[in-house]
């Protein structure tokens, strides 16, 4: 019998392990449970935390380490990945705009995306033909206007202070402060700018970025309402400042704040579109960038996973996407997760042939969260013994 080839291809386990760390733990556990299997690894990404590392592992390239500002103006390290042929630069918004950078006492309303603009400045200096920005996981609720301001000539200190002052600063935004939109966008002439994130996240309203993400930064209901109000004020001014196209068939105005992807990265996608970017679905594009389809050659089983497999992850996540892709290739896919909150019918409909939880109840979650790699490896070893046939020719045991 030929060796079984098992592709270990997990998503990140949010707040616990990135995708590469999860793949390492799962592969180690699987090899313990089925040492005769061939176990290649593939870290998945949706443009969120671990995006640059996943691409570097899958496709190679040259890493550049830089220091930029975090959302509250402190220096923070970040990494850019230049593709092997040098034409594309990849960068990750969550590295410089993520909630992990917040410290006690930091004002949620002051969080700025200016550091992402500084990172884009470095990327432009490498003279690429294309820049790809992973947006998922960014949490600076300033519409990406801090980023835009950081890319424009510093000719108006007052406008800079407002645009880089987070959601709080946007409350004082005036039409005269918007000249930087044109000059910043001009920086990308001849460069294809692409954002990767959630195309379904609304920018404003009851399901908008303030309502969805403000609490993650510690904003209470009153602060979240103020963020929403200031974002709405800024969007209204920008819509008047920049002519909006019309639908050629209906004549209806195509509102910039309702375009797919403007809510990606907690609204940083809006600022990226002002720079001329196209925002694409992070999940599907992420599979393409890491070469998921090519990795299926000769594979008998796909093992994926994420922290919590529930309704949201079944709707849109790398783990669900690779299960569906495996199904299309006639390959079974299973998931080893921290928790499984979806029913058997739902997971089978999403393409999973089986799902396995490390923590079978909420009570077991704290144990898993304390040692996620260990828990994932132990569960993967047990699952391997279920799914992988025993070695028909095990090594002979020496006689005593």
Q: Could you explain the architecture of this structure?
A:
The structure is a single chain. Strands 2-3-4-5-6-7 form a 6-stranded mixed beta sheet, with helices on both faces. Helices cover 38% and strands 14% of the residues. The model has no long low-confidence stretch (mean pLDDT 93). With 400 residues, the protein is α/β, with parallel strands linked by helices. A hairpin with a 5-residue loop joins strand 3 and strand 4. It is elongated and about 75 Å long.
Give the arrangement of secondary structure elements.
Layout: E1 6-8, H1 19-33, H2 51-59, E2 62-69, E3 75-82, E4 88-92, H3 93-97, H4 114-125, E5 130-134, H5 145-150, H6 157-163, H7 166-170, H8 180-186, E6 192-197, H9 209-213, H10 221-241, H11 268-274, E7 278-281, H12 282-289, E8 301-304, E9 308-309, H13 311-315, H14 318-328, E10 333-337, E11 339-340, H15 344-349, E12 354-357, H16 362-370, H17 372-387
Parallel strand pairs: 1-8, 4-5, 5-6, 6-7, 8-10, 9-11, 10-12
Antiparallel strand pairs: 2-3, 3-4
Helix pairs in contact: 1-17, 16-17
């Amino acid at each position: 019998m030929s060796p079984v080839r098992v592709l270990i291809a997990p998503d990140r386990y949010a707040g616990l392990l990135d995708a590469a760390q999860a793949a390492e733990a799962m592969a180690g556990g699987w090899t313990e449970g089925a040492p005769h299997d061939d176990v290649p690894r593939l870290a998945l990404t949706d443009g969120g935390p671990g995006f640059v590392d996943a691409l570097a592992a899958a496709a190679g390239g040259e890493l550049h380490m830089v220091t930029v500002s975090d959302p509250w103006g402190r220096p923070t390290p970040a990494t850019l990945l230049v593709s092997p042929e040098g034409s594309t630069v990849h960068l990750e918004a969550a590295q410089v705009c993520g909630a992990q950078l917040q410290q006690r006492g930091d004002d949620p309303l002051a969080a700025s995306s200016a550091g992402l603009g500084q990172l884009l400045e470095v990327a432009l200096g490498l003279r690429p033909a294309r820049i790809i920005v992973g947006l998922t996981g960014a949490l600076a609720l300033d519409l990406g206007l801090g980023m835009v301001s950081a890319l424009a000539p510093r000719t108006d200190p007052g406008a800079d202070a407002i645009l880089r002052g987070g959601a709080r600063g946007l409350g004082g935004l005036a039409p005269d402060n918007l000249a930087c939109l044109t000059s910043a966008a001009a920086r990308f002439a001849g460069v294809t700018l692409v954002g990767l994130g959630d195309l379904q996240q609304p920018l404003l309203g009851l399901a908008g970025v303030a309502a969805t993400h403000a609490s993650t930064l510690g904003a209470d209901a009153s602060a979240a309402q103020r963020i929403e109000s200031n974002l709405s004020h800024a969007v209204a001014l920008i819509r008047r400042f920049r002519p909006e196209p019309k639908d050629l068939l209906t004549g209806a105005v195509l509102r910039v704040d309702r375009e797919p992807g403007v809510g990606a990265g907690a609204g940083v996608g809006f600022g990226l579109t002002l720079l001329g970017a196209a925002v694409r679905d992070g999940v599907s594009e992420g599979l393409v960038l890491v070469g998921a389809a090519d990795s299926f050659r000769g594979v008998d089983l796909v093992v994926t996973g994420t922290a919590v497999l529930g309704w949201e992850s079944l709707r849109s996540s790398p783990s669900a996407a690779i299960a569906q892709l495996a199904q299309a290739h006639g390959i079974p896919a299973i998931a080893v997760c921290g928790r499984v909150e979806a029913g058997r019918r739902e997971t089978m409909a999403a393409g999973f042939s089986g799902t396995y939880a490390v923590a079978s109840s909420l009570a077991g979650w704290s144990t898993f969260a304390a040692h996620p790699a260990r828990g994932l490896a132990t569960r993967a070893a047990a699952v391997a013994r279920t799914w992988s046939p025993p070695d028909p020719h095990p090594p002979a045991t020496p006689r005593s």
